[in-house]
Amino acid sequence: MPQTVRRRLSPEDRRNQLLDCAQHIILSDGLSSLTMELLANKASVSNPLIYKYFATRLQILQELLIREYGAFRESLAEPDKSTTNYRDAVRRYVDINFRQFSNGDILGILLGQPDVRQVIHEKERPRYAPHFINEMAKEFGIRRRLAEKVVVLASGASIAAAEHYGRYGGDRETQIDQTVSFIFGGIESLLKTQSTD
Q1: Contact criterion met (CB below 8 Å) for 46 and 72
Q2: pTM of the shown model
Q3: For residues 92 and 79, is the Cβ–Cβ distance under 8 A?
Q4: What Cα–Cα distance (Å) separates residue 112 from each residue in 46, 80, 176?
Q5: pLDDT (tens digit per residue) in 36-85
Q6: For residues 157 and 76, which has the higher predicted lDDT (pLDDT)?
């Protein structure tokens, strides 16, 4: 029987492997189940190796948040060239929120922990991309400050809808469409009441 040769992972690959394993533990067994010992066991490494990469459990959680939050922000950073109008762009944004914030998503779990989320500086925490604000201002002919307010409100509605979907389920596409309709209805209503804000 041929022997399999074990390959050493690069430090970056090992760190990501440990973060992936921590994420799996959290999603399958809950946040409180993650310990250094369980992580070592599930990753098939020694306890000292875990401590070589992470000094504390909190550091694991914070680095996992940094990685996942970076991926989330990157997904929002640039407008999708395939969207043909602003409504399509908003639908894409809502879809991203449904992927990130529905029940069982690691980002939502980690952001819910004050000691973990403090690693993300307040100025880096907006859940919307600046291009949405600029596009909102252009689409509706409003000042940037009002557009920012509208995008923040729409973002909150999108995240809340994603969390609701995660708790209660249902048809995902229908709920995304309903969320987009709710957002645009809210935008129209708000714009009727705001003249100079």
Answers
A1: no
A2: 0.67
A3: no
A4: 30, 29, 23
A5: 999 999 999 999 999 999 999 999 999 999 998 888 777 766 656 666 78
A6: 157
Work out the angle at residue 166's Cα, subtended by the Cα atoms of residues 101 and 105, and round it to the nearest 5 degrees.
Answer: 40
3-class secondary structure per residue, the chain: CCCCCCCCCCHHHHHHHHHHHHHHHHHHHCHHHCCHHHHHHHHCCCHHHHHHHCCCHHHHHHHHHHHHHHHHHHHHHCCCCCCCCHHHHHHHHHHHHHHHHCCCCHHHHHHCCHHHHCCCCHHHCCCCCHHHHHHHHHHHCCCHHHHHHHHHHHHHHHHHHHHHHHHHCCCHHHHHHHHHHHHHHHHHHHHHHCCCC
Spell out the domain ranges in the chain. 77-193
